Amino acid sequence: MRVRPGRVLLTAMRFLTDPPRFLFFTGKGGVGKTSIACATAVHLAEGGARVLLVSTDPASNVAQVLGVIIGNVVTPIPTVPGLSALEIDPEAAADAYRERIVGPVRGLLPDAEIASITEQLSGSCTTEVASFNEFTDLLADPAVTAAYEHVVFDTAPTGHTIRLLQLPGSWTDFLAAGKGDASCLGPLAGLDKQRATYAAAVAALKDPDRTRLVLVTRAQASSLAELDRTFHELDEIGIHAAQIVVNGLLPRAAGDDALARAVRQREADALAAMPADVASLPRDLVDLKPDSMIGLAALRTLLAPGAPDAAVPAPAVPVEPAGRGLGSLVDEIEADGHGVVLFMGKGGVGKTTIAAAVAVALAHRGHDVHLTTTDPAAHLDDTLHGAVEHLRVSRIDPVEATRDYRDRIMATRGNNLDDAGRANLAEDLLSPCTEEVAVFQQFSRTVLGARDGFVVIDTAPTGHTLLLLDAAGSYHRDVARQMGANANYRTPLMVLQDPGQTKVVLVTVAEPTPVTEARVLQDDLRRAGIAPWAWVVNDSLAAARPTSPFLLRRAAAELGQLDLVSSLCDRVAVVPLLAADPVGEERLASLTHVVSTVA
Questions:
Q1: Which residue blocks in 413-548 are alpha helix, DSSP H?
Q2: Across the strands, what pairs with 343?
Q3: Active-site entry in 27, 29, 33, 352
Q4: Whose CB among 234, 363, 419, 560 lies 3.0–4.6 Å from 390's, allowing a Cys bridge?
């Protein structure tokens, strides 16, 4: 192996031993996949290999971590010879995909026909198909990556990754059977040419000699439970995880104050209770660092053997976080008596916990509350740990929604068809596009149902949420076009745009990447006519008031991000990092009362 001068070999990390051509990093949002993937790519490149780092995450922040502007083209990283990076931009891919289909017929077909085709191509299914095409080429066409010895994938949060990895087999089966008709004309146009590419992508994903799948997690009960679900879901489609990286473990250098002891105990308990199947996989442990993983110098320290007892200087300035408590937001929400409260943000920042805490608080005040999630990776039962009076809990499950939608369409549209017609309709409903329609219909019913009580929605990670809102916009445009300018109608997007009916709350943690992502999301929402109502900064070390120098340094680093959040929104609540996991009715309720925790 060629080792560049100044490079320190990392012998402790088992997932780096004899790496194959393709390395995938996946796991629950917010566990540090991007940092681990970037550090791996830097390590391999500085070891003498030619490496391509690829992000397939709609909410990618690879560019921020590496400190280089990266787009939808392969970009060399000047500070790391041998390393190049690529961010698959879903929107750019969808724009190019649409133009390939609409461009040749523009000017040949009537404007109404062009508008109809464009509308078919405006939904999230098209965006996913377009991104998928770029993703599979990297796996299936040796010529595309011939210049590189390794391709490192920083994948999207778990729900999106599962869907993305399932698509190769799904599309291969769909196309091999010759299924699909006009209802999928837009998104599926031209895909028949891609049979060989999809089959090759499936083969690469399932071949351990070519692909290593690394599951990244944190030593937290929710992250480890999601890890186990991911492991089994991938295993069922023939993609077998090979390694686990437990990221962000609190080191001994963090000191021995009450908060540090509590966090270490939580981590130890979580790892001891790790499900048996994933516990048997080779495991690497990565310590939390005192500084954020932004920039090349920081990345080089992430996977390097640490000095656990090294002293960490305390910050020179006092740590005094600003912000109100979560309970003050509940007071304002309650004042309206009903409405939709939509929690959004980057994966892994605690949207499910904050949404559940607000829902429990409203229920405790005697209001009827419907708490639901659109996140494929969210499990509200694990957070609530039981029933709560006045609180109804549901989840928009893509599998169940799609099955119900197919059954309903077969019972209505298919009722008057002959056997051949019913067979054709049934085949059309097996298209992957059907899921988008089914999930959106359930989301719409939920949004439109907040007339008498409160509907609290825990959304999917940012990329999924934007795709869902794009579907809402597509539906709104379609209704407006069909009903005319003077018609009286009410669409889900209209409800989301009305601050009297919907309060959008952005959830983040006080770190550069999640805050930047939430800021971009706020801008995107405003372009859609949706104004965020409040921000919540979750798991704040500064608000927890630690005493050890290590944790004080991490806490002090939050202050700049807290100031930035305060400049972006007038209404900001700060929730401290707690000594115990905020699960169960009692602990969730306490979140709306606590201002600081361990002294």
A1: 419-428, 433-447, 462-483, 492-497, 512-527, 541-544
A2: 458, 505
A3: 33
A4: 363
- The one catalytic residue in 34, 155, 462, 508 is 34
Let me know whether 279 and 146 are in one domain: yes
* 67 carries an active-site annotation: no
**240 and 377 inside one domain:** no
Q: Quick one: tokens of 196?
A: 């060989």
384 with 255, same domain: the answer is: no
Residue 463, domain member (yes or no): yes
Catalytic residue among 26, 27, 28, 30: 30
pTM for this predicted structure:
0.77
Tokens of 326: 């979560």
Of 302, 337, 365, the one marking the end of a domain is 302
The CATH number for 27's domain is 3.40.50.300
Q: Are residues 238 and 374 in the same domain?
A: no
Does one domain contain both 82 and 155? yes
Domains in the chain, number? 2
188 and 90 in contact (C-beta within 8 Å)? no
Last residue of a domain, one of 270, 302, 334: 302
Range of the domain at 298: 14-302
**DSSP conformational letter for 324:** B
Would residue 18 show up in a list of annotated catalytic residues for this protein? no
> Among 27, 57, 161, 172, which one carries the catalytic annotation?
57
Q: How many CB atoms are located within 10 Å of the residue 312 CB? A: 18
Do 372 and 262 share a structural domain? Answer: no
Tell me if residue 33 is catalytic.
yes
Please work out, in degrees rounded to the nearest 5, the angle formed at the alpha carbon of residue 73 by the alpha carbons of 70 and 75. 50
Q: pLDDT 10s per residue in the chain (599 long)?
A: 444 444 444 446 899 999 999 999 988 767 888 899 999 999 999 999 999 999 876 666 787 788 788 877 899 999 899 999 998 877 777 788 788 778 888 888 888 777 767 766 766 667 766 777 777 888 888 888 999 999 999 886 555 555 555 656 665 565 555 544 334 434 445 454 466 777 788 888 889 999 999 999 999 887 888 888 888 888 887 888 889 999 999 998 888 888 888 889 989 999 999 999 999 999 999 999 888 888 888 888 898 865 544 556 666 555 666 668 999 999 999 998 999 999 998 777 889 999 999 999 999 999 999 999 887 666 787 788 888 999 999 888 888 888 998 898 899 888 888 888 788 778 767 765 677 678 878 888 888 777 778 999 998 666 666 667 777 777 787 777 777 767 777 788 888 889 989 999 999 999 887 888 889 889 888 888 889 999 999 999 889 888 888 888 888 888 889 999 999 999 999 999 887 788 889 999 989 986 543 33
Same domain, 58 and 21: yes
Q: Is 421 among the residues known to form the active site?
A: no
Q: Is residue 384 part of a domain?
A: yes
CB-based burial of residue 536 (10 Å sphere; 0-12 exposed, 13-18 middle, 19+ buried)?
buried
Q: Which candidate in 32, 339, 414, 453 is catalytic?
A: 32
Active site residue 35: yes
Shared domain check, 94 and 43? yes
Q: Provide the edge-to-edge strand list for the sheet that holds 454-458.
A: 391-395, 369-373, 454-458, 339-344, 502-509, 534-540, 572-576
Specify whether 289 is catalytic: no
Domain-located, residue 207: yes
176/228 Cα distance (integer angstroms): 32
Q: Could you say which of 26, 27, 29, 35 is catalytic?
A: 35
Q: Is residue 79 part of a domain?
A: yes
